[in-house]
Design goal:
Helices cover 66% and strands 0% of the residues. The protein has helices spanning 13-20, 25-47, 59-73, 80-90, 94-114, 118-134, 141-153, 155-158, 164-171. Helix 2 packs across helix 7 (141-153) and helix 3 crosses helix 5. It is globular and about 60 Å long.
Length: 181
């Protein structure tokens, strides 16, 4: 018979509290609302803008990409591989990317505010933050990226004070109530 040689390292109390204890939900609620409102505000501004989703859809993306490509040519802030992606993929599809960014930001904001699929919403928010950072745009992207990464790590409890409390158990997450003896 083969012996199980797995070494189990117990989780420290701080990370267990932050990432697995529903009592930390209030901390994550505050972070979720901050990040969510930032995304909702940014997304709403784009969804209601002609340059992003209206008659002139794609104009804003072309301007953004143009600025990033200029930074790449100067040898600053934007790496060559990302500049190539922007030039060859994003620029020719600026209208599509305008809609993706605008509605993506709006959906991330709503997901975080409502606490619905919090980990997934935070992941896509972090993905957009990294994309903007690669394009040489700082703004609030670094702090939003860090907070979104923490929300991804805390996915089990970050939406406890939100719709995840009811949605995630229906989707088959590891939440179970301990039976009292």
């Amino acid at each position: 018979m083969k012996e199980n040689k797995a070494i189990v390292i117990p989780e420290n109390p701080v990370s267990r509290f932050l990432f697995s204890d529903s009592r930390s939900g209030l901390i994550w609620l505050i972070i979720r609302l901050y990040v969510g409102f930032a995304w909702l505000k940014a997304g709403w501004g784009k969804v209601t803008s002609d340059a992003w989703t209206g008659e002139q859809a794609g104009v804003a993306v072309k301007g953004f990409v143009g600025g990033a490509l200029a930074k790449a040519q100067e040898g600053k802030d934007v790496t060559g591989w990302y500049a190539s992606f922007l030039e060859n993929t994003v620029l020719p599809n600026a209208k599509v990317f305008g809609f993706l960014v605008a509605y993506g930001e709006l959906l991330v904001g709503l997901g975080l505010i409502l606490g619905l699929l919090t980990g997934i919403a935070a992941f896509f928010g972090a993905f957009m933050n990294v994309s903007f950072l690669f394009a040489g745009t700082l703004s609030t992207n670094p702090i939003l990226f860090i907070l979104a990464t923490w929300l991804v790590l805390a996915w089990k409890v970050a939406g406890w004070y939100g719709l995840d409390r009811w949605a995630l158990p229906k989707l088959g997450t590891p939440w179970t109530r301990k039976k009292s003896i």
